Amino acid sequence: MNERSTAPAFGITRRDIILSSGIAVAAMALPRQGAAATQPSANQSGNEIMSFVKTQDGTEIYYKDWGPKDAQPIVFHHGWPLSSDDWDGQMMYFLEKGYRVIAHDRRGHGRSTQTWTGNEMDTYAA
């Protein structure tokens, strides 16, 4: 009969993995400081704006556009399953440095229209 080694591979035990997972879940449950400090964009008169672009198929894409309109822009594009809100910390950093920062919610994400189709690069580029 073969004896199995009980030594953990790479020095990581099951207990380490469970403990690390618990810490990661707890950290995600805490509110993020960067998101709490953000302010919505405002137009020339100081009114808050909720900005959308309507695509050819009627999908509304939400976006944030902060900072001086004549400043160098930085565009943030999130991956699955995130939204433009996940960039708020980075956006605030570059906004404080004088950049114009823009982020959007992809189709089916965040405040954009929830869609079942068109979630591929050909539709994004159209």
From the spread of the alpha carbons, the general shape counts as flat
Q: Rounded to an integer, what's the Rg over CA atoms?
A: 21 Å
* CATH superfamily label: Alpha/Beta hydrolase fold, catalytic domain
Largest beta sheet: strand ordering: 1-2-4-3
Helix/sheet category = alpha+beta
Count, helices: 4
The count of domains is 1
- Average pLDDT reading: 76
Number of strands: 4
Binned, the helix content reads 25-40%
CATH class: Alpha Beta
Reported CATH architecture: 3-Layer(aba) Sandwich
Content of β-strand: 15-25%
Main β-sheet description: 4 strands, mixed
List the secondary-structure elements in sequence, H or E.
Answer: HHEEEHEH
> How far is the first residue's CA from the last residue's CA?
63 Å
Q: Could you list the spans in which at least 5 consecutive residues all have pLDDT below 50?
A: 26-41
Query: And the CATH topology?
Result: Rossmann fold
Question: How would you summarize the topology of this molecule?
Answer:
Blueprint: H1 14-29, H2 33-36, E1 51-54, E2 60-66, E3 73-77, H3 88-96, E4 100-104, H4 121-125
Question: What attributes characterize this protein structure?
Answer:
single chain; 126 residues; Rossmann fold; flat
Task: Explain what you see.
Helices cover 27% and strands 17% of the residues. The chain has a single domain (35-125), classed as Rossmann fold, CATH 3.40.50.1820. The radius of gyration is 21 Å and the shape is flat. It has helices spanning 14-29, 33-36, 88-96, 121-125; strands at 51-54, 60-66, 73-77, 100-104. The chain is built from four helices and four strands. The longest helix is centred in the first third of the chain and has 16 residues, at 14-29. It has a four-stranded mixed beta sheet with strand order 1-2-4-3, with helices on one face. With 126 residues, the chain is α+β, with helices and mostly antiparallel strands.
